[in-house]
Fold:
Amino acid sequence: MEQHNKKAWLYMLPAALFLGLFLVYPLIDVLIYSLEEGYNFASQTYWGVGGYNYSYVLHDPYFLQALKNTFLLVIITVPVSTGLALVIALGLSSIQKLREAYQTIFFLPYVTNTLAVGLVFMILFQKTPYTDGLVNRILGWFGVAPIDFIQGPYWAKMLTLCVYTVWVVLPFKILILTSALASVDQSYYNAAKVDGTSKARIFTRITLPMISPTMFYLVITGFIGAFKAYSDVVALFGTDLNAAGMNTIVGYVYDMLYGTAGGYPSYASAAAMILFAIVLTITCVNLLVSRKHVHYE
Amino acid sequence: MNVTLENLTKVFPARGKKGSGDVTAVKDFSLRIPDGALVGLLGPSGCGKSTTLNLLSGLLTPTGGRIYFGEEEVTRLPPEHRGVGLVFQNYALYPHMTVQQNITFPLENRKGKDKLTKKEMADKALEAAKLVQIQDLMDRKPKELSGGQQQRVAIARALVKMPGVLLLDEPLSNLDARLRLQTREEIRRIQRSTGITTIFVTHDQEEAMSISDLIVVMKEGVIQQTGKPQQVYDDPANLFVARFLGTPPIHVFDASVKNKTLYIGEAPVLPVPGAPDGPVYAAVRPEGFVPEQEGPLVCQFHRVEVMGRDVSLVASHPNCQNTPIRAIIRAQTDVHAQDGRVRFRLDPGKVFLFDTQTEARIRF
Structure:
């Protein structure tokens, strides 16, 4: 037994070392930074230990704006993208012709660079002195006055960001859901058909429970991904996100470290810890909810 | 309920660009199944027996022909309006539902005036569960059940809506040997007590023979023979049927008929007054070999295998297509094996002659 234990630890050593060095240690370090008040980057000194950094961050209007933006983004895009992906995946699995062609098309955004996609969205949405952009032109056919989606009102910018985020995360979700749907044994559907089950009931009572582990996985990773949104926002609104009012929590952390007003690792650490706490809480809630509604075979 | 199939044909179109043509899974299938019968559809894999079952259930639509349940034609009727219970080979129990929920599922689909209250559904489910003796397992999930118990749940789910016809696809293939024996008795018992016309598919001839009222032997989508199990065994219509039924399998000799006598090699083994001269296949059931001191068929003797009630005498003959020969004889019989040879007389009732070209039966 003893011998076995030693051997097991030895096997785990490489992974444990790497994880410890690059994951656990930084995490602890960030926690320590976040508690050191008045930390000076140049002299590596601090005044004392306490919760001031948290208090500062939580009172910073830029952070509160970032928090609001992030939450809106999460609450809107996770359900919309997952639902939309499910609808598209269901559509894909019910067609025979051109399925592979459609699958490829739906998967293309996944292999496209974020910034390139951002540029395309700018062209679609941006209103400049020369053009109103494609979206505005289409809206114009319905008599809607041109809206500046990139530099205009807050709701327009948020809408652009949400559409963009949904579009970017969709391919991966479609891919995963298509394979989940394909892995449901056809005999379940045949059994239900023979028993006269309606299409809606087949979906809610058989399909959905059968793919629930995949749905759960997508929701959890979707939440985490959306909470960590940053590069998408930069792609659309540039690097000065505070000015645009479109900052996110991760963006705030970045600005506190390296931005024009940067050089405050303690504030950045506190913001990062707050994000960590939020993500952890949401994930725990997800896990609790999933116990009741997710069926593993 | 009577079930009648008339000239049923199912053609699957060729798949892909390089498809080598259409596949006819079932061809000109006509059968009349009397009310309350237990029918075994029997054949090797790919013979169209499962396709036939799916045509009956309505999951597939035939290319040609008609199906009647009683007086009503159901050929184009979707599965849910046919009133069939279907038990799948892999049972297809919903893994996220309990046994109770699985059994009540078909009842919950009912709409309008057929709609049942929760109480009625629970009562019906319990009734079906009692029939297959799983009433103590109602709160379990399928994965917490053994293969045999899952099978029972699947049957209960198919029976709960009181179907006019019960269809079972390879009902015993996922069970181990012991359970298989037990379950086939069980299926027989359930079928008897409900009186539901039941059709099941199997590739195991023993399974089909042991419990069926009627067996249908199929090959490449075509019915080879229909009849009571014993009748088909004792009077096969062609070489395929003769070969397919019986364990150990029938032994087929390259033989010939000359002057109303059957010759195996140079030895005249049996008078066959009704058969024309020419080469034939002579098929002999294992129990058709009778050891006799002066018997005409001389075989190489290998050994005796004792199985208790019977012994199996293992021998070989150069003209036999499937060696070694296993002759089943009563344990008391003395075996005279001089100089490594054993001599047999053939029981004429256990010998069948077949044409070497058409493999059709030649009566003698």
Notes: Chain B has two domains: 3-244, 251-362.
